[in-house]
Amino acid sequence: MDKWIESFTNSLVRFVRKEMSEYRLYAVVSPLTRFFDTLTNCYIRLNRKRIKGDFGTDDQVHALSALGRVLNLIVRLMSPFTPFFCEYIWQNLRKVSGASEESVHFTLLPVPDDSLIDESIERRVQAMRDCIDLVRVLRERKGIPVKYPLKEMIVVNRESQFLDDLKSLEHYILSEVNVRQLTVSQDKHKYGITLKADPNFRLLGARLKGDQKKVVDYLKTKISEAELE
Question: Which segments constitute the Methionyl/Valyl/Leucyl/Isoleucyl-tRNA synthetase anticodon-binding domain (predicted)?
Fold first, then answer.
């Protein structure tokens, strides 16, 4: 997870610098603000025990060092957009990092370290996060709180790469969704899965008006499951 968060952060630095160099400032604010949600709800959440030192001092130092490097990058990257927030974090970082610059605004925008960027790690963690989010949604729909353990979760996907990515991070998934076993498969027929198109009546009504019924009838009767795949 340390490699992932450093790769993810440096990818963000590269993206922001590219967008800013082409004056697309509007494109960088949303990814920057979402970053802290990713940092807190994914990296820190999944590494709570390491950060607290439950697995030993050496592992705790590795986790805290990675977190410190990431925060150093992100506050410098975000400082033009959220100056006071980043200055607050910077002053707290100075207490433990020994940074010589008195203000984050005396520093330059960071440059991405391409040697730390690993797209395969980012892909695997994104697959894990998507899976965890879907399980949480399903639990909520069924009224089953996360505190109640489940025997098994079955993930069906036609992409073998996606399934391999999930299995590589299986222990994180099982821990987060409180399930004892993860089963993956590419065979949707084995589990009775079918696909169908459900019309969005509000959207279709606004766009198609009088032709809405024709489109709805077509979606319900003419589109095959193979086409939906």
Answer: 2-153
How many separate domains does the chain show?
A: 2
Residues 101 and 53 in one domain: yes
Residue 203 lies in a domain: no
How many angstroms separate the Cα of 47 from the Cα of each of 60, 82, 97?
Answer: 9, 27, 21
Report the candidate in 41, 114, 28, 123 with the shortest Cα–Cα distance to residue 79: 28
Quote the pLDDT of residue 205. 67
| Alpha-carbon gap, residue 203 to 193, rounded angstroms | 27
pLDDT tens by residue, 31-81: 998 998 999 989 999 999 898 888 889 989 999 999 999 999 999 999 999
The number of beta carbons lying within 10 Å of the beta carbon of residue 157 is 16
Q: Are 192 and 198 in contact (CB under 8 A)?
A: no
